[in-house]
Design brief:
By secondary structure, the protein is mainly α. The protein has a domain at about 40-135: de novo design (two linked rop proteins) (Up-down Bundle), CATH 1.20.1440.20. It contains 6 helices and no strands. The chain is rod-shaped. The termini are far apart.
Length: about 190
């Protein structure tokens, strides 16, 4: 009888552990998805603003067609990433960020553009979106850190195959966008 009670107790403890681990995986995955949805909202606002910014710059920098096309192509590529493919979205966003930096570098070469009210308004809105995106990115990265740490530590690591653990990439700036953008008209 005592052996049966001990065995029942062990089974109960293992069952509670499994439930706890499963719930933690589910919680972490949902936190990451929630955090990504905040990033996604900021990205949508950025996508909506970019065509207006490009059109404003076009009037001043007509011979900078390749820079403007790069921005539009990067925007379109980022918008085409399948919903839910967070890791591919991060890569596409880094390319778009790099292209946007080129547009702002152009404004340095065109004083009239830099003084244009529409351009300044669009730039201010984009800066606001970028700040919001940065906050969302930090929250997302914190959620990813918690998710990945649990999946790579004990007891989570024992059950990653059983409970459909998903590893997420951090939303970090790529090396190209960390470098200063230089515009050369020579």
């Amino acid at each position: 009888m005592i052996v049966l009670l001990i065995l029942l107790g062990v089974v109960l403890i293992i069952g509670l552990l499994l439930i706890s681990v499963f719930n933690r995986f589910a919680k972490n995955r949902n936190l990451v998805k929630d955090a990504w949805s905040n990033v996604d909202v900021a990205l949508k606002r950025r996508y909506d603003l970019i065509p207006n910014l490009v059109e404003t710059v076009k009037g001043y920098a007509a011979h900078e067609k390749s820079t403007l096309e790069d921005v539009i192509n990067a925007r379109n590529a980022a918008m085409q990433v399948p919903k839910g493919d967070i890791n591919s979205q991060i890569k596409a966003e880094n390319l778009l960020q790099s292209a946007l930096r080129s547009i702002f570098a152009l404004s340095e070469a065109y004083p009239d553009l830099k003084a244009n009210v529409n351009y300044l308004d669009l730039q201010a809105k984009l800066n606001e979106i970028e700040e919001n995106l940065e906050r969302s990115r930090r929250y997302y990265n914190g959620s990813v850190r918690e998710n990945n740490t649990y999946g790579e530590s004990f007891p989570g690591v024992l059950f990653i195959g059983v409970f459909n653990y998903q590893h997420f990439d951090y939303f970090e700036t790529d090396q190209a966008s960390k470098e200063n953008v230089k515009v050369d008209f020579s």
